[in-house]
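Quick one: structure for this chain?
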Amino acid sequence: MSDPKPILSGIRVIEVGTYIMAPAAATVMSDFGAEVIKIEPPGMGDPLRMLHHVPPMPTCDIDYCFQLDGRNKKSLVVDLKRDEGRAIVLKLVEKADVFLTNYQPSVLDALRLRYEDIAPLNERLIYAHGTGYGELGPDIERPGYDMTAWWARSGLMDVVHSGGADPALSVAGMGDHPTAVALFGAIMLGLFQRERTGKGGKVRTSLMASGAWTNSCLLQSVLCGAAPYHPADRKTALNAMVNHYAARDGKRFILTGIRGDRDWANLCKSTGREDLMQDPRFTDIAARRANSPALIALLDETFAEKDMAEWDRLFTANDLTYSPAPSYADVTTDEQLWANEVFVEMPHPQRGTMATINSPLFVDGTPKQKPTAAPTLGQHTDEVLQSAGYAPHVIAHLREQRVIA
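Got it. Here's what it folds into:
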């Protein structure tokens, strides 16, 4: 019996997008076998190719952002502002399953690539639109990055920081990638609907909506009239059992003791401080909350007595819920992540092989596509046009006219 094909084999995606959110949704599809044709403008191409040069991004000779979200794809360079270039995309759309974009509505209107423009060409087409702020309201034309539309606009920036500290900036792709999974889900719903009806349609999501969903517990508290939430400084947090600490070797970890007296007993056993269970300041939840700063200070001193490896053994032995909080560099060597294929190897022309981050979806019994390096700019232009029926002399003419590159 032959090995099963990836679940999206035979699905063709036309990607007309930049940076991360919409292209990353196409990357997820490519991981499951979809053919993704990435349409890039002449010149620089997708500016994601250059994001690794923008401070404060870590410097590198590899365009690592593009390698992550450009993998498995075919690059076709077309000037969409030219009628001949637009005609190429329309010809590809005729036999595509998904058209994926995150261009602003006014740009799609100018290029005549709105849903209404191209849906008549292919009644089975799924048109997927990822936006910063949605398709209605006064901000539909506002440029939307995940730092603005997902992190700041959703209220996450307001609450994810310590006490009176200044709000932090989000890191690159922090909201784009989860929003990409949401857009991928919308696309799959569209394909499922097509299986039932035979008809395509339009699906969409936005960074703003995804950010609100991420921050939904606190937003729901406001909608229900709850008391205001105030980020606490870790030294004065109301719950010492839900806090982060440092071991003797400087490695950090976070406790998540939300099981009340049960976790309190497990913590006392882990630290060898069973005497604290009789301390009147900490005898019950209310007392521990009232005396939380004192308990945090005491735990700071206690945790500074042993290295992280020893605390890991003790916490595990005593059924205490916690997690190490490694540096982002240390995450790349985490055995647990490698064991679960969070990281996978792919060939790379400069490095021979290079690890990349897998998309976070798995289907048992269905293989994922082995990743391939992101394409160079325009690498597949001739190949894609030939497969669409363009004769070599026509391709040469389009190149002479700078319609393609």
